[in-house]
Amino acid sequence: MDLYDTTLRDGTQGEQVNFSAEEKLRIAKKLDEVGIHYIEGGWPGSNPKDLRFFEMAREEKFVNARLSAFGSTRRPDRTPGDCQNIQALLQAETPVVTIFGKTWDLHATEILGVSLEENLAIIRETVAYLKEKDKELIYDAEHFFDGYKNNPEYALKTIETAREAGADRIVLCDTNGGTLPWEVAEILEAVKGMIPADELGIHAHNDCGLAVANSLYAARLGVRMIQGTINGYGERCGNADLISIIGNLGLKMNRGCLPGDSVRILTNLSRYVSDVANIPPVNSRPFVGRSAFAHKGGVHVSAVLKNPRAYEHIDPTLVGNQRRVVVSDLAGKSNIEYKAREFGVRLGDDNGLSRKIVQEIKKMEDKGYQFDAADGSLALLIRRATGEFKEPFTLESFRVIDEKTKSDSCRALATIKISVGKEHEITAAEGNGPVNALDNALRKALRKFYPQIDEMHLVDFKVRILEGSEGTAAAVRVLLESRDEKEVWTTIGVSANVIEASWQALIESIQYKLSKDKLNRNG
Predict the structure, then answer these.
(1) How does pLDDT run across 266-310, given as a tens digit for each residue?
(2) The domain made up of 2-259 is a member of CATH 1.20.1560.10
């Protein structure tokens, strides 16, 4: 099975997806490292950025992948030799060229504005010209499935023309993404009567949520090449997601399509491309999403503790992912016991303690807390319940003053009084906002007692109004993400006062840091 990645071209047609030439090269190298067979780098005739990418790519050595330049058949008023787009494909100097041509008679006559015979001539002449230049030629039959349903005889004639002109591979495109799996199967059987399956490919869009299913069905029927994008990026509803396709081919259909155990880095690949694209990963993405192997319901967790196969279709480590148990108001005793082991907390044989923790979580979630998104706060709650955690400091009071002058930006001043054992500390600090000022003042007060807090810093700060009917008096939830060199953790605070909610999340963040450091020393 040949995998053809078009993230760098078709993927960038999706909203909010944009790569610089340098970023495209980074992704191409990553795809080559994984073992993708073909990488479509872009459309050199459409923009200078893609031309620059191909210039840089010429200096790179690709070990597993063959690089392809993408473009259209010649313009109706040009020959291939004097068509600028065709010449740009040759200037890219790639071993593979992929061109698309019109298959649907509607597109030939109404969109391109040529006769059906002239469209066949355009396909024939373009393919033959590029084959004369010693290129591996992949022909994408645009709108093939719609074209076949509208005029099957003509649709078949277009791909037969491309093959006779020398195309090495004919790729059948579901460009509008509206074809159903059984239609794909029926049409493929007709095509296979004319072109062997191992010379065919499929390029499916996801407008009906069927791109992966259609691609896998084509593979089952012997089609040799599957085109798609990492994470399913692409125009409208996206393209076939190569992540899901690779997972299904390798682990469900026993048709390994990557070298060695490269399937184990699927999660890493998905997140890498997501990071470069600056698009948050989709937690629910199959195989690689953060929630793909997350268990929340108490009955599910109880079963997973006995045998993970009860609620997992594969071992998550096979694709580089991991099992997660989350705790919420749906949690049962099993969730708490699992998380306690994960946090290194000993609950012993006291079932009553687990139930007590469950009831406390349910009461707090009813007030707006959300522990499935705040593992740091959950760890502290469990450690407090077992008596393992002792408060490292006590707040006596704090005051925050926010000042805005006519000529200056807002500045905040926080004053804090805390006690550590029998010692008291009063400090003040400024910040660019009230939470920043509180953070600075608290760190200043605690530094001489706990110098390790300098190892941690805040990463993210999120505020959400829980119920909007009370307007500005509504309760808010604050989630605070922090990290040190070894770990990232999230803590939570809930209050009708955003400063108090922020304070709760802030002190729990520091308490979690001190708690885990103590646990690591003792462990």
Answers:
(1) 999 999 999 899 888 898 999 999 889 988 776 777 788 788 889
(2) no
Q: Is 231 left (phi over 0), alpha (psi -120 to 50) or beta?
A: left
- Which amino acid does the sequence have at 338? Y
Tokens describing residue 148: 């076949």
Average pLDDT value over all residues in the chain: 90
- Residue 482 β-bridge partners: 458, 489
Euclidean distance between CA atoms 137 and 128, whole angstroms: 9
- Residue 134: Cβ within 10 Å count: 7
Q: Looking at the DSSP assignment, which residues form a beta bridge with residue 42?
A: 69
Per residue in 475-522, pLDDT (tens digit) is: 888 989 888 888 889 999 999 888 999 999 999 999 999 988 776 555
In degrees, to the nearest 5, what angle opens at C-alpha 301 toward C-alphas 296 and 304?
135
| pTM exceeds 0.85 for this model | no
| Phi, psi angles (nearest 5°) of residue 516 | -70, -30
The DSSP code for 241 is B
In this model, does residue 42 exceed pLDDT 90? yes
Tell me the per-residue pLDDT of 72-112, one tens digit each, with 9 for 90 and over: 999 999 999 999 999 999 999 999 999 999 999 999 999 99
Task: Pull the structure tokens for residue 98.
Answer: 């992929």
Residue tagged 């069905």 (tokens): 217
Interior CA angle at 1 toward 266 and 14, to 5°? 55
Fold of 394-522: Double Stranded RNA Binding Domain (3.30.160)
Which letter does DSSP use for residue 197 in this model? G
Backbone angles phi, psi at 138, to 5 degrees: -105, 125
Closest CA to 227 of 238, 209, 248, 242: 242
d(CA 420, CA 450) in angstroms, rounded, equals 10
* Position 31 confidence tier, pLDDT thresholds 50, 70, 90: very high
Q: How far apart are CA 68 and CA 98, in angstroms?
A: 6
On the question of pLDDT at 523 being above 70, the answer is: no
Q: What is the DSSP letter of 289?
A: S
**């840091």: which residue's tokens?**
513
Q: For residues 351 and 389, what is the distance between their CA atoms, to the nearest angstrom?
A: 20
Domain ranges of the chain: 2-259, 294-365, 394-522
Length of the chain, please?
523
Q: Write b or e for each residue in 372-392: b if 16 or more Cβ atoms lie within 10 A of its Cβ, otherwise e.
A: bbbbbbbbbbbbbbeebbeeb
Report the CATH fold assignment for 294-365. H-NS DNA Binding Protein (4.10.430)
C-alpha distance from residue 291 to each of 112, 317, 378, 414 (Å): 45, 14, 18, 39
CB of 86 closer than 8 Å to CB of 127: no
Q: Residue 103, SS3? A: coil
Look at residue 295 and give its three-state secondary structure.
strand
Residue type, 149: K
